[in-house]
Amino acid sequence: MQMSKDLLFNFFSMLKEKIQIDEEVISYINQIFSNKAERVLDVVKRGMSKNVYKPSNRVVWTVMGENCEHIIYPKMYCSCQDFYKNVVVSRKRLFCKHILAQVICEALNNYNTTELKDKEFIDLINNLELKF
Asked: What pTM did the predictor assign?
């Protein structure tokens, strides 16, 4: 199977070129994410945030999950339980629905950008640790 970063980069490129979600994009999502495109598109509809922390310029994406906010490092990591269980531990998938949704939102420029202070990043991480 193609490396996950390459696959996500190709998906990103396809979306940038198309500028929309059409049947081909939905078919591609179903192919790479076990026929669950509707779950990925639900995350896209909920909305994604690109948080830029100053002065470090660290970028972290966030999305509201069903119960809490998830942190996403594009094409690499998501703080959701599905990523931990099915990507890291059991290796059933290459990524979770939040990572795919982030790629879609970034490619289509469909996200909110927020500038925050570096201290707020530390608060975000501390709050994340409290949930586990």
From this structure: 0.85
